[in-house]
Backbone:
């Protein structure tokens, strides 16, 4: 295979090679089913910081073409992404020789320095190679040969804690080579001091909250007390075309309850979003700091400027209760609790509740969240309108042969009887359980929790209309 001429975009979009131009291509990873949500968030981030960009969806992630500032902005402020990868090459290969030649055509010495360690993580699917380790070995050889030809020596491989992580994917005849710019996954915010059984990943919780319209409330509540209404993708498209949706508008409430809170991920992520706090802005290490030495000054300037802007946009925690009070009064939402905390989490496990409290404290949010030990089916609303988010047991959290039907039926009964005017969002991988909820979902989104295919469903609890008797007194 002849060495490809570096270029940003070929007429054939299936081919791409990294170049030293001002615009690069990045791939931002997320869980399957959340590509639309991630795309919206990336566009929001780039627009907020006036970064020239182009975004389109891929599989379990989104592509971003932007200057390095785009990559850095997403690393610092995305709540839905897992990693940001710098795409080095995407092209077709027909055999093992092509695989090596394509990898060798890249100028690896311009990507990272000789004194840094690296690793290669390879995955394959439906292709001419039967072993992913073989693919990784070919790419590793190409990297080492590139350095050896220029310097007479090669960088060391470190599979445990490498400085540079290379990701390779061979799907059929398409080879993709990328390098990590993130380091520790973006979902690791730093507040999870302890864990519980099958914890919900932070970026997954943030994505689910975004589907529920929580980001619309987070953006609106600081600007005015005017009502914020739930919008999904379909509603937004109709709105852009000047067409009114037939669906009854759903008022977004700032009161949120998770009655099966585990380590408190849902309520903590909800509080972070409402405050516009971005935990990763306070990280001191990202992998992009070791990449592309000739771009070091550009990245350093962008990092400093973006950090300052993101921190300046954070809202004071002391101001949130008043903003919620003003919004609630304007929109006739009343609270039933003496606590000023708008977010409630409960769990039947004392250990989970204590873990959730510690995580909230580490995140600096303990004043906003009220945790208690309670059976989920004893839950009561703490406001006249609010949002329920529920992640009940399924998949790996189940005992073999465990019957979910009573639990899901009890959830549906509880919502109907105790939570009028509330909106419930339920994520589950149990189709049998869903059939027992006894409520018709108003929204249904297909997502994945890890490798488990799930449904994320919205249930709007309208108040029950009393039956009128036809009998005369």
Residues:
């Amino acid at each position: 295979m002849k060495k490809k001429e570096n270029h940003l975009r070929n007429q054939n979009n299936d081919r791409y090679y990294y170049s030293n131009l001002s615009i690069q291509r990045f791939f931002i990873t997320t869980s399957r089913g959340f590509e639309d949500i991630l795309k919206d968030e990336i566009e929001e981030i780039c627009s907020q910081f006036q970064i020239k960009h182009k975004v389109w969806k891929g599989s379990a992630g989104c592509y971003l073409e932007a200057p390095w500032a785009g990559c850095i902005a997403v690393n610092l402020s995305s709540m839905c992404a897992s990693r940001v990868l710098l795409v080095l090459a995407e092209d077709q290969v027909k055999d093992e020789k092509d695989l090596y030649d394509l990898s060798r055509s890249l100028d690896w010495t311009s990507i990272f320095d000789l004194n840094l360690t690296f690793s290669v993580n390879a995955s394959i699917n439906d292709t001419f190679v039967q072993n992913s380790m073989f693919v990784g070995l070919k790419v590793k050889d190409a990297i080492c040969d590139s350095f050896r030809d220029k310097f007479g020596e090669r960088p060391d491989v470190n599979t445990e804690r490498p400085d540079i992580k290379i990701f390779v994917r061979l799907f059929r005849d398409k080879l993709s080579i990328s390098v990590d710019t993130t380091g520790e996954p973006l979902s690791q915010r730093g507040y999870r001091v302890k864990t519980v059984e099958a914890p919900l990943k932070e970026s997954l919780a943030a994505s689910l909250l975004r589907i529920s319209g929580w980001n619309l409330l987070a953006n609106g509540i600081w600007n005015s007390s005017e009502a914020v209404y739930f919008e999904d993708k379909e509603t937004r498209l109709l709105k852009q075309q000047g067409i009114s949706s037939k669906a009854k508008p759903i008022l977004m409430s700032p009161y949120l309850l998770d009655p099966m809170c585990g380590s408190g991920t849902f309520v903590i992520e909800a509080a972070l979003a409402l405050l516009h706090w971005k935990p990763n802005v306070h990280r001191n290490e990202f992998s992009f700091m070791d990449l592309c030495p000739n771009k070091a000054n550009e990245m350093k300037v962008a990092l400093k400027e973006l950090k300052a802007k993101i921190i300046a946009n954070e809202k004071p925690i002391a101001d949130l209760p008043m903003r919620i009070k003003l919004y609630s009064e304007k929109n006739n939402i009343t609270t039933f609790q003496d606590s000023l905390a708008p977010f409630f989490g409960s769990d039947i496990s004392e250990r989970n509740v204590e873990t959730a409290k510690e995580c909230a404290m580490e995140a600096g949010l303990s004043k906003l969240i009220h945790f208690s030990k309670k059976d989920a089916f004893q839950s009561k609303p703490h406001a006249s309108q609010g949002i329920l988010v529920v992640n009940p047991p399924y998949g790996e959290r189940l005992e073999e042969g465990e019957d979910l039907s009573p639990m899901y039926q009890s959830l549906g009964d509880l919502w109907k009887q105790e939570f009028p005017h509330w909106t419930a969002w339920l994520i589950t991988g149990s189709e049998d359980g869903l059939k027992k909820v006894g409520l018709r979902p108003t929204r249904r989104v297909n997502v994945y929790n890890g490798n488990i295919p799930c449904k994320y469903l919205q249930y709007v609890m309208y108040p029950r209309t009393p039956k009128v008797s036809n009998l005369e007194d």
Notes: DSSP finds 13 helices and 15 strands in the chain.
